[in-house]
Amino acid sequence: MELTPTVAPMIDLSRQEDGTNSTETFAKVVAEGLSQEPKSLPSRYFYDAAGSRLFQDIMALPEYYLTRCEFKVLTENRQEMAKQFAENSFFHLIDLGAGDAMKTKILLRELNEQKSAFDYVPVDISGDAMRQLSNSLQQEMPSVDVQAVVGEYFPALEWLQENKSERKVVLFLGSNIGNFKADESKHFLQRICSNLSPGDKLLMGIDLRKDPDTILSAYNDASGVTAEFNLNLLRRINRELGGNFEVEQFRHYPIYNPHEGVMRSFLVSKKEQDVYIRDTGQTFHFDAWESIHTENSHKYSLQQVSELGKACGFSVETVFQDDACRFADVLFTVG
Ligand code: AVI
């Protein structure tokens, strides 16, 4: 018997972008960030090939509880989640920042087993990741319809709103919302909501507030992988923009503020030094012990999550969390 092909050709929206991934934009952002007082660089530039590999290593660290906790939450609640997604009618399962979909596969297997009517739409900026995922799903779950979209989240959601007319369930896993500033996360969720219809759903992974020592260790692991991940940003500037950072003259310094629930990461200059970056044509001066702020990772209480959702047009349907209340996957409904 012939198998019906279930992998639709990839939709590539990456060329329609505003150049956020170009070298020129990177140079501009770096020049702005290093000219500011205090200096800062945006964490979205962590993820070149080397940074993405380091992030894979972070997720396997004993201290980095987030990934293991979310894995557990999804595994233990997969039947209930699948039931609440399905509602006995067809839906599009849209996975924002799908990557290798390790965690999403827990839900896909369950939906497949429950014989739910759905198609799977992974969205990611990496065309390679989407090609590999489409192939691996064809091998592992040939009966699941897959339509990968390569591009940024919002062009992808706009495309989906125009081209996929049925009910939608959006996944935004991994506590990625935590890396936005407070106003950015609100804006992000409002934009998601404006591309959905009443009754559509969003399952969002959120790292919860907990013992500050547990949080700090997760970003300051004993083996130094997170330090390498942070320092890779300087290596990336050297590689891509012709910078001459002496990377060993900077150190990773994370600090958790329990009052705000924000984990902040810095790179601190160990000495007074000047750094020249060819593509910006500028030299940047560092005083001894001057810092560059590189990342925020927000931790939320469940009440804050519910208020954030409400302010953006969502209401909480179900909170799924682990026994120790470290991590939650919150299912929201539009309206
Ligand atoms: C991708 N993001 C949710 C990670 C986090 O926990 O904020 C990135 C990360 N930074 C340091 N370790 C992991």
Key traits:
single chain, alpha/beta, four-stranded mixed sheet
Describe what you observe in this structure:
The chain is an alpha/beta fold. Helix content is 38%, strand content 25%. It contains 10 helices and 15 strands. It has helices at residues 23-35, 49-59, 65-86, 104-113, 127-140, 153-163, 182-194, 212-218, 225-241, 302-311; strands at 11-12, 39-40, 91-96, 118-124, 145-146, 149-150, 167-172, 201-207, 250-257, 262-269, 273-277, 282-286, 291-298, 314-321, 327-334. The strands form 3 sheets. Strands 1, 3, 4, 5, 6, 7, 8, 14 and 15 form a 9-stranded mixed sheet that branches. A 4-stranded mixed sheet has the order 2-13-10-9. Strand 4, helix 5 (127-140) and strand 5 form a beta-alpha-beta unit. The chain is globular, with a radius of gyration of 21 Å. The protein starts with 10 loop residues before the first strand and ends with a strand. The model has no long low-confidence stretch (mean pLDDT 94). The protein binds N,N-dimethyl-L-histidine. Residues 58, 66, 174-176, 178-179, 219, 226, 229, 295, 297 line the site of N,N-dimethyl-L-histidine.
Low-confidence stretches: none
Which small compounds were modeled alongside the protein? N,N-dimethyl-L-histidine
Instruction: Write down the overall mean pLDDT.
Output: 94
Say how many strands there are. 15
Q: SS-based structural class?
A: alpha/beta
Helix content: 25-40%
Order of helices and strands: EHEHHEHEHEEHEHEHHEEEEEHEE
Q: Give the overall shape, derived from the CA principal axes.
A: globular
Number of helices: 10
Largest sheet, strands/sense/barrel:
9 strands, mixed
Cα distance spanning the termini: 45 Å
Q: What amount of the residues lies in strands?
A: 25-35%
Give the radius of gyration.
21 Å
